[in-house]
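Can you make up a protein sequence with its C-alpha cells?

===
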Amino acid sequence: MPVRPPPPPPYGPHGPYGPYGYAREHPDGTTVLVLGILSLAVCGLLGPFAWAKGNTVLAEIDRAPYAYTNRSSVVTGRICGMVATGLLVVSALIFFIVLVGAVSAST
C-alpha cells in the first residue's frame, strides 16, 4: 500500500500570517477608506468605486483572515461608498423627475 504525502497546510507554505510572519494592514485598505470618505464629503461619483474596491479587498481579507488587521477600515470605506452610491442614485432620480416636469410644463 503506497504512503500518501501529508496534505498541504491550509494557509499556504508561509502559515496563517503570510510570508512576513505577522499580521499587517492590507495595502488597499486605506485606499478604500479614503475613497469612501471622499465619496461622501466631496464627490459622490467615487461611491461606486469605493464599494467595488471594498468588495475586492474584503474578499482578499476573507481568504487570509489572520494575515490582515484593517478589516474594519475596509468595511467602513465600503459602507461609505454604499451610502454615497445610494445618495447619487436618489439625486439622479430627483434630477430626472424635475427635468421631465420642466420639459412637460414648457410644452
Q: What stands out?
A: The CA atoms of residues 22 and 67 lie 7 Å apart.
